[in-house]
Amino acid sequence: MLLRLIFVVVSAFTLGFALLMVTARSLFHSALAMAASFLGVAALYILLEAEFLAGVQILIYVGAIAILIIFAIMLSRGTMRTAEPVVNKQWPFVAVVALSLFGLLAFLVSQVAWPARSAEPMGDPIAALGKAFVGPYVVPFEVASVLLVVAMIGAIIIAREKE
Amino acid sequence: MTTAETFLYLSPELTLLLVAALVFVLDLVWRRDPDRAHRWLPWVAMGGLAVALIITVALMARNPSAHIATMMVIDPMSLFFVAIAIVGAMLVILSALDYIPARTPYVSEFYALVVVAVLAIAIIVSANDLILIYLGMEFLSITSYILVGFLKRNRGSVEGALKYFLYGAAASAVMLYGMSFLYGATGATDLEAIARVFSGGLTGDLALMGFPAIALLMVGFGFKASLVPFHQWAPDAYEGAPTPVTAFLATASKAAGFAIIARVLLVGLPMFQEKEWVPILMGLSILTMTLGNLVAIQQRDMKRLLAYSSIAQAGYILIGLVAIGRDVAFGGLSGLLVYLFAYLFTNIGAFVVVIAVENATGATDLPAYAGLIRRSPLLASMLLLFLLSLAGIPPTGGFLGKFLVFGAAIRAHFLTLAIIAIINSVIAAFYYLNVVRYMFFVQPPDGGRKAIAVTPAIRVALWVCAAMTLLIGVCAQPFVTWAAHSASLLAAVW
Predict the structure, then answer these.
(1) For residue A29, what is the domain's CATH number?
(2) Is the ipTM of this complex over 0.85?
(3) Which residues in chain A are contacts of B116 at CB distance < 8 A?
(4) CB-CB: which of B142, B184, B203 is closest to A147?
(5) B136/B163 Cα distance (integer angstroms)
């Protein structure tokens, strides 16, 4: 019962800030709301007993990505005080589509009898994760490394001034 | 499998990785002598791609069905697509030799990134696990965003890259959601494991999940293959991107989208064929070819016209997957492979002509093609051949592809679909022939005295594309056998 209450509170926190993020007029406020929403997701991971994922979520999403976005906004001219409207004239149509998609997916998630299985709690999840990275997940692990290098090179090409 | 065998089967990917790294490193080594780097690095990349191609063809001869670390499957089908991507990249590099150095200082990075994009495609087409499929798709997407926005001083290039990026991010988020459905229902990310769980019989509740899960997956895959309604990025990205990149996106990258659709649906979700994915693919196919063709008619820019044409072509190609019936021995799938193979040379060839005209005149709009026959008989006759092949007129490869795919649809009793496709081909012939009209019958503004020079590299690329386009059409049997063989092992899994 208590767990359920915590879940409702955490979900409301996450979704509330997510909503604030997409409706805020100032880009800066959006970024702050996004960081808060990321924190809520980390709390959800803790509720699911995925502590490592929660730690990673805070370190990478809140710590690195959100901060980087906030820096980028503060360093760009003219984005701190934008008065751009957050909706355009297509919004009623989009709202109908989005709401019906939400209804459909919510119906689906609640109707399907998703097979639940009780997994054994892992002794040392971080050690198991490390082994998985060099075992069954070695190919994605390596591909991700190459992807990061390429993304960095691309970022340099896009950002660097070279005459 | 032993370690040595694993490395053997991964050798095309490893070669591509080494070649890309080599180009990046040599660029740094030769940084005091950029002329030398710009002259030699494209050939380093070409040589590396050629080595990778030879290895790929040699592996094909072994007829493998090898699982690598539970995540990848090296089989004739994946090798077929790896070969397509490598050949496409080689033609793209050939056609970019004059184009890229004239427009950006980042020349070596361009060739290295093209090789990296081929590596990403090689991973996608062999991926047998949702995690690796997602990662590979992101890999190819991110590399493609960089390549589209490569001319960063050019407004169109940056705009195209931004649109591509925003649509791509949204599409992969939706695709991930679909993947989470499959994982939630089966507890597995491996395609074969997913199929095993479902083959135990669909309980009523789980069957409900099939249609939405496949629809969500198709958002991500359809984005790569530029199927309507996930195509909105394509015209702007194709128009703004450096033209060699456009050629790559329209052929190799699109083929990767089809490869992944085929593998996920046939290996992972065969039990959802009749009620779920055949109707979804059929709807997408009809929408894609009809909208692509109707909008293409109104285009006045050659790159945009070819963009919409390639959207329409994706609709025809998709018929191959719709028409996979249980009884027609994969006629649809091997037709799809032949179509993609012929389309690779035809479409890259058309873009090479666009590149040559753009190099000479700086323009890509239709009036730039007025009287092309007088200014460059070679370019005009080549473009005529490629347009005829795109329109599906014999004896070209494009005809063979259409013939096999439409034939498979008729044999699998999708008559309506086949009729809609044939009507669409007629509409398409109209705008292809309109370009021909410009080239042959419209007076050029300057009277056509100024000849267009064609560099040797472009000439080679054109001749290769033209020879292959004709060869596939005239001497069809080996290609059909090869495609049927490549498709057959996937059938065996099935």
Answers:
(1) 1.20.120.1200
(2) yes
(3) 146, 150
(4) B142
(5) 20
